[in-house]
Specification:
Blueprint (H helix, E strand, L loop, with lengths): L1 E7 L7 E8 L4 E6 L9 H17 L3 E4 L1 H7 L9 E4 L9 H16 L5 H19 L1 E3 L3 E3 L2 E3 L8 E3 L11 E3 L5 E7 L2 H10 L2 H9 L2 H8 L6 H13 L6 H5 L1 H16 L2 E3 L5 E3 L6 H27 L4 E4 L3 E6 L5 H12 L15 E8 L2 E8 L2 H39 L30 H7 L26
Parallel strand pairs: 1-4, 4-5
Antiparallel strand pairs: 1-2, 2-3, 6-7, 6-10, 8-9, 11-15, 11-16, 12-13, 14-15, 16-17
Helix pairs in contact: 2-4, 4-11, 5-10, 5-11, 6-7, 7-8, 11-12, 12-13
Length: 485
């Protein structure tokens, strides 16, 4: 296993300052001095070291490192290794080569104590998509290209865009650098509560997402004794405040038991785990509620990180932005809408496919519009079965449309041919008979129309030869009449 730690500066793209590479199998540690202050290295040597680190990361069978997104940008990595594990480590500064090397050795030793888990690999794979979004930028206001700095090193793992806060923008003048006039918005239905239903395994809460949402379902089951807004406030407050005594907790009894178990776990072990096993510890200034909430937020972050990489693999040029629980893509024409909806919903409806057993469906709402955040609801998919059924219907409609267009073209062609056959040529008026001209004889007697080339050449004077007087000097010919010689 290979361990890599790199110090980056605080610039937008984060230039690499110094990299430490440790091979666990051979117990060898090597340092690559890059753009750190007073390194004494030439640009040629730095670029050569960058290329070496790039090859090491790409060729290794298993790599554990810090901030894979910054490694992709800083080392221009274009061949992505799927066996990379991204550890969420604090960002360290490096002022000198000697000091950086000492820090790197200690950090590598701490990294070796951490067992790589699946959620580390999920982070690394998502970093590929975030690196592309960061380098590509977005167009704001028709002309200006802005470059948000994407960060997933938050406490819960949820993404955050700094420098340019595109996630909170409501401006309609946001465009894809790679074009696209149609916006497609893919949004999970109550993503946090959906994750709570999966973690708690509450039967009622899971059932609520099949055709509705937990707030509407609760209102209907209680026969309108509480309205939807009251049900929503009660459920959210009960979860995030870890309050067991509420209408929502009494209604969703399985949820109540899970919250109580999580509270006991914090008391006994000092931590709780996300859906993929990430531990959130009760340490520092973190209180019980913030750690418990991070379990929910972190689990949703896992789902989005899985989705954004898979969607990026399918539609890299169409992906515009990730907005916590939703993705926004663009396309150029209506013919692209159905393939994008099929592909993206196939990912977002089942984000944990091949990782967690079946039953982890996330209802997804698709909205379409001609401006950013100015879209209308198009379709909701509650399960992969609904999506498959819709695919069949759209394929059948597309086939019928092609048949109709073919028949229409064939009918039009037939009508044109019939009109051409019915049209008769007009009779010519005062038609003059054309008499064939006799051919010129090649041999024998000359016809009256033939030319005597010999007589023609004799009768015509050469244009370059002046006329000659027949007898002596004829004065009248040269216009000298009446003049003395």
């Amino acid at each position: 296993m290979l361990y890599v730690y790199t110090f980056f500066d605080k610039s937008h793209d984060g230039r690499p300052l110094l990299t430490c590479v440790h091979d666990e199998d051979s117990s060898l540690t090597k340092f690559y001095t890059l753009y750190i202050h007073k390194s004494g290295k030439s640009i040629y040597d730095i670029e050569k070291s960058q290329e070496s680190v790039k090859k090491i990361i790409g060729a290794s069978k298993k790599v554990v490192l810090n901030d894979y997104k910054q490694h992709i940008i800083g080392f221009s990595i274009d061949q992505y290794n799927n066996k990379v594990y991204d550890l969420p480590l604090p960002k360290m500064t490096a002022d000198s080569v000697k000091g950086a090397k000492k820090k790197a050795v200690k950090i590598i030793a701490a990294m070796k104590k951490t067992k790589p888990q699946i959620w580390h690999n999920v982070r690394a794979n998502a970093a590929v998509a975030y690196a592309d979004l960061q380098q590509r930028g977005i167009v704001i206001g028709y002309r200006d290209i802005k470059y948000p700095q994407w960060d997933i090193d938050t406490y819960s793992g949820r993404s955050r865009a700094s420098k340019v806060s595109v996630q909170g923008m409501t401006d309609h003048d946001i465009y894809n650098v790679r074009g696209g006039e149609i916006y497609l918005h893919f949004d999970w239905v109550s993503a946090d509560i959906r994750m709570v239903s999966i973690l708690s395994r509450d039967e009622r809460l899971n059932k609520a997402f099949k055709d509705s949402d937990p707030y509407t379902y609760m209102t209907e089951q209680l026969h309108r004794h509480v309205d939807r807004d009251e049900a929503k406030r009660s459920l959210l407050a009960s979860i995030y405040k870890m309050d067991y005594n509420s209408i929502a907790m009494d209604f969703y009894s399985g949820l109540k038991e899970w919250v109580m178990e999580s509270s006991d776990s914090l008391t006994r072990t000092g931590h709780v785990q996300s859906v993929l096993g990430r531990k959130f510890k009760l340490e520092g200034d973190r209180n019980r509620r913030s750690v418990f909430n991070a379990t929910i937020q972190g689990s949703v972050a896992h789902a989005m990180q899985l989705c954004i990489r898979r969607v990026w693999d399918l539609f890299p040029s169409n992906l515009l932005i990730e907005n916590h629980d939703s993705l926004v893509l663009t396309c150029h024409n209506e013919e692209e809408i159905v393939p994008i909806v099929n592909g993206v919903c196939g990912v977002m409806v089942q984000p944990f496919k091949s990782i967690i057993p079946k039953g982890m469906m996330f209802p997804t709402v698709v909205s379409i519009g001609k401006q950013y955040r100015n879209w209308q609801k198009f379709k909701r998919f509650n399960s992969i079965e609904e999506l498959d059924e819709w695919k069949k219907k759209t394929q059948a409609r597309a086939k019928k449309k092609k048949v109709r267009e073919f028949k229409k073209r064939r009918t039009l062609k037939k009508k044109i041919l019939e009109k051409q056959e019915q049209r008769k040529p007009e009779e010519p008026v005062n038609k003059v008979p054309v008499v064939a001209r006799p051919a010129r004889p090649i041999s024998g007697n000359k016809s009256s129309e033939s030319f005597d080339l010999s007589s023609f050449s004799q009768s015509k004077a050469s244009p370059k030869t002046a006329p000659k007087p027949e007898q002596g000097f004829n004065r009248s010919v040269w216009g000298l009449d009446g003049q003395e010689a």
